[in-house]
Amino acid sequence: MDIGGPGFTPERLPEVSEKGNIVEIGVAYGDTGGRYHRLAYSQLFDGENVGREQTFGVSVTFSF
Q1: What is the DSSP string of 1-64?
Q2: Predicted local confidence at residue 59, as pLDDT
Q3: Domain ranges, ordered by start, for the chain
């Protein structure tokens, strides 16, 4: 069922499902200090009942 589609009412909201196709690309590497660095980008290119979105991510991970 699609929000706003034929037959949709607020009472039928529990029947609605989100479906999305997302493409993600990322680059990651580990340095000699034991840290892990990552840059990522994702884009929703097709979906149903989901917001259009782009996501940018940056992370640094290290152990202790």
Answers
A1: --TTSTT--GGGGGG---EEEEEEEEEEEE-TTS-EEEEEEEEEEEEESS---EEEEEEEE---
A2: 95
A3: 18-61
